[in-house]
């Protein structure tokens, strides 16, 4: 079956998933990756015996990953040792209140009753109502939206009254909880989409429900191991992955993608081209404007983009007594979020996320030491902030917060190696448009049929995978984007590929 040649631009989670699915069905897959390693934002960073995940540290909806491996006739457990993270996370609010939600509903309800008296009933309602919403929403996200007619799909029409797209995530959660901190505990997940809970559609309460209902996971070695496992599967099925091979241009002839030109001038042809590179970057840099009517440079500049992140990867010479995931909220969280999403200015008192994976997975650091991953959500490069100038002072500011509020007293004196990434690095080194790490924003006007289509609408023979297409940013949705796009490609190649039948949820 297959036999047709597919070129994939980028070996990030989207490109690897598509490559794995298509190679397993006999397509001749060639993945071209500009970096020397696979994974993109989901690659490893290795320093002096310490290992860090570059980007994703939360693996949710692990059944989607299992389904992808099953579709490629494999078992995830033959490639990855995945453990549950329990509790989900430590949430620390300004009043020094700490909340450790977990998948154990009884224990979580008891904590809520103690910390946020009266709101425990809202928690029960949240679980029941949102479960219903999730069941309606998931099937809507598993199908492509290539035309406005698709908005009339029965499953979407039936789901609409349950999706809460008419109000913001924060307003929606306010219908369950009175206490402002508890509302934040169930809405901060908008940050996974790079958005503000005060702007993000109420639909996305399904993310906190997924965490509370299905849990969070960590593959031993780090989440980047998913990328290397997928790369292994691609190669096992005869696909090739060319590293350190940047693509210069996607070649379009007579309204059809016919291949790519590499930066070194080599021209490669294919029956189909899949684009995994960041969507806005790929359009503005890899596709000459004469081939774009809808996504001109100007149209792209007018889109809404997610926030960015300031990152510290710290190798330390000791272990730390804090959980795996820690979120230290800004004293004025509303202001912090507005600075990021509305004012586009640098927060001087930001929220900070710290991952201390060695508590669960000591393999990520030399014995007795630990690898700390620090993520600060901040405004993207629309801000015009001069990162070369700001970085040293911002690093100090973040370390102050970590030492005083995160449970990492004396941290500075234990750092033995470190790496910093700023929005400028995301843009220049990782080819992420405006350094918007979570891609195009997920406002209703940029979702479903209004998001760049999986079967790309500008020219034939081209498909998009990754956070910039439907269903959106985040690992499970990116895997889903690749499954949808691979299915469309198979359809165009005249092969019936019953992916849909293999979906276990929804
Ligand atoms: C800091 C951070 C934290 C995140 N945390 C989470 C999380 O906890 N959980 C979660 O589910 N998601 C998370 N995400 C979001 C998302 O899952 C990841 O960003 C994911 O890696 C995006 O995958 P992708 O396939 O869309 O793009 P990418 O990972 O960016 O892959 C695109 C690939 O294309 C390559 N490329 C670009 N241009 C070219 C070119 N010209 N030629 C050849 N190759 C090219 C890139 O090098 C890259 O390998 C996080 C993202 C970031 C940045």
Describe the structure.
Helices cover 32% and strands 18% of the residues. The chain is of the alpha/beta class. It has three domains: 209 residues, FAD/NAD(P)-binding domain (3-Layer(bba) Sandwich); 106 residues, no CATH class; 127 residues, Guanine Nucleotide Dissociation Inhibitor, domain 2 (2-Layer Sandwich), CATH 3.30.519. The strands form five sheets. The protein has a seven-stranded mixed beta sheet. The radius of gyration is 22 Å and the shape is globular. It starts with a strand and ends in a 14-residue tail after the last helix. Bound molecules: flavin-adenine dinucleotide. The site of flavin-adenine dinucleotide has 34 residues, from α1 and α15. Flavin-adenine dinucleotide binds next to α1 and α15.
- Identify the quaternary structure here: single chain
The CATH architecture of the largest domain can be given as 3-Layer(bba) Sandwich
Tell how many strands the DSSP assignment holds: 19
Number of domains: 3
CATH superfamily placement of the largest domain = FAD/NAD(P)-binding domain
Q: How large, in whole angstroms, is the Cα Rg? A: 22 Å
The spatial strand order of the largest sheet comes to 7-6-15-16-17-14-18
| Largest sheet descriptor | 7 strands, mixed
Distance between the termini: 29 Å
CATH topology group of the largest domain:
FAD/NAD(P)-binding domain
CATH top level class name of the largest domain: Alpha Beta
Task: Please state roughly what percent of the residues sit in beta strands, choosing from under 5%, 5-15%, 15-25%, 25-35%, 35-45% or over 45%.
Answer: 15-25%
């Amino acid at each position: 079956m297959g036999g047709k040649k597919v070129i994939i631009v980028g070996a990030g989670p989207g490109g690897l998933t598509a490559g794995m699915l298509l190679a397993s069905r006999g397509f001749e897959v060639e993945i071209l990756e500009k970096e020397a390693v696979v994974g993109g934002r989901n690659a490893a960073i290795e320093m002096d015996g310490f290992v860090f995940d570059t980007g994703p540290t939360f693996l949710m909806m692990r059944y989607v990953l299992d389904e992808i491996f099953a579709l490629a006739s494999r078992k995830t457990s033959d490639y990855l040792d995945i453990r549950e993270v329990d509790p989900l996370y430590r949430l620390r609010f300004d009043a020094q209140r700490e909340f450790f939600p977990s998948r154990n509903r009884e224990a979580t309800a008891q904590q809520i009753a103690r910390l946020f008296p009266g709101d425990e009933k809202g928690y029960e309602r949240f679980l029941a109502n949102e479960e219903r919403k999730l069941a309606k929403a998931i099937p809507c996200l598993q199908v492509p939206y290539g035309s406005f007619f698709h908005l009339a799909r029965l499953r979407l029409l039936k789901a609409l009254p349950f999706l809460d797209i008419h109000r913001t995530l924060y307003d929606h959660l306010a219908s369950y909880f009175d206490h402002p901190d508890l509302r934040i505990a169930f809405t901060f997940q908008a940050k996974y989409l790079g958005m503000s809970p005060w702007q993000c559609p109420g639909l996305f309460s399904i993310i906190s429900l997924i965490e509370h209902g299905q849990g969070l996971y960590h593959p031993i070695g780090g989440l980047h191991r998913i990328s290397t496992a997928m790369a292994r599967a691609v190669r096992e099925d005869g696909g090739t992955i060319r590293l350190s091979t940047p693509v210069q241009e996607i070649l379009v002839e007579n309204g059809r993608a016919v291949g790519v030109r590499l930066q070194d001038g080599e021209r490669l042809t294919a029956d189909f081209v899949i684009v995994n590179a960041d969507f806005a970057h790929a359009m503005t840099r890899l596709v000459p404007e004469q081939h774009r009517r809808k996504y001109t440079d100007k149209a792209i500049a007018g889109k809404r983009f997610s926030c960015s992140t300031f990152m510290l990867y710290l190798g330390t010479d000791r272990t730390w007594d804090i959980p795996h995931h820690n979120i230290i909220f800004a004293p004025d969280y509303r202001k912090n979020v507005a600075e990021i999403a509305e004012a586009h200015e640098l927060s001087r008192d930001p929220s900070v996320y710290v991952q201390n994976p060695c508590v669960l997975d000591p393999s990520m650091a030399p014995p007795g030491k630990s690898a700390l991953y620090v993520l600060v959500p901040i405004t993207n490069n629309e801000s015009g902030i001069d990162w070369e100038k700001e970085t040293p002072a911002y690093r100090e500011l973040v370390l102050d917060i970590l030492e005083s509020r995160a449970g990492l007293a004396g941290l500075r004196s234990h750092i033995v190696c470190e790496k910093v990434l700023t929005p400028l690095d995301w843009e220049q080194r990782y080819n992420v448009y405006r350094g918007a790490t979570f891609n195009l924003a997920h406002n209703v006007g940029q979702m479903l049929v209004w998001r760049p289509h999986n079967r790309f609408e500008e020219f034939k023979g081209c498909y998009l995978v990754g956070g910039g297409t439907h269903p959106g940013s985040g690992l499970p949705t990116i895997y889903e984007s690749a499954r949808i796009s691979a299915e469309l490609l198979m359809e165009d190649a005249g092969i019936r590929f019953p992916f849909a039948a293999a979906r276990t949820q929804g």
